[in-house]
Amino acid sequence: MIEPLVVRRSTLRTWLIALAGIPAMVIGIDVVWRRRIVAWLTERIFPAEPQLLESRDEIWAWALVVVGAAVVVWGLKELFAPAPVLRTDDEGVHIRLLGPFRPATTLPWDSLHDVDAGSLADDGDPLEVLVIEVKDGVLLPLNPWAGRRFDENTLALYSLEWDRRAEEVAETLADQAVAVARATRHEQ
What is the residue-averaged pLDDT of the chain? Predict the structure, then answer.
């Protein structure tokens, strides 16, 4: 009935996040095994009396390796098989509001009251958001992931990391909601 809309994370941002995990892994591996980079830095910072690494430093190094590897694996997974952040079909709007590894929240078309794009001030910086207002607030989680609830029925989704602008998504969602309402009315 409608052409599905699929919004994913920006490929460039995902790639940059994945690259950020590599230095963490390199430093962690260097501390745990070879200590070439760390020894060189220690000689430059403390030329008279180099400091020794303690066991807690190795624990932090392992944490860097694990977190860095997880970030790289997640980034590569998102590059080759990206999970949609928002998608539409005849059933409604499916949004990932509960966090990673959790199913998308479905907002049926007849539950939508309004969809709009806007901006929020975050520490003085404007953030682009998609504002969704539903008729029944029970459909929205209390603490949405990658979004903020304004009141019982209104949700703002941060769209900075999306591959489409919030204005474009809002227009498409509004057009699709109207098309679904017309099709439903003609079926009755």
Answer: 87
* Separation between Cα atoms, residue 121 and residue 16, nearest integer Å: 25
For residue 76, the one-letter residue type is L
Burial class (CB in 10 A: 0-12, 13-18, 19+), 8: middle
Angstrom distance (rounded) from CA 107 to CA 93: 5
The per-residue pLDDT for 160 is 87
With contact defined as beta carbons under 8 Å apart, do 78 and 9 qualify?
yes
Cβ(95)–Cβ(107) under 8 Å? yes
**Residue 92's closest CA among 119, 57, 132, 48?**
132
Asked whether the whole model's pTM tops 0.85, one would answer no
Q: SS3 for 54-86, per residue?
A: CHHHHHHHHHHHHHHHHHHHHHHHHHHCCCCCE
Q: How far apart are CA 86 and CA 183, in angstroms?
A: 22
Instruction: With beta carbons less than 8 A apart as the criterion, state whether 107 and 139 touch.
Output: yes
Tell me what the mean pLDDT of segment 157-179 comes to: 92
Say how far apart CA 101 and CA 61 lie, in whole Å. Answer: 27
64-87 pLDDT tens trace = 999 999 999 988 888 888 889 999
pLDDT at 109: 92
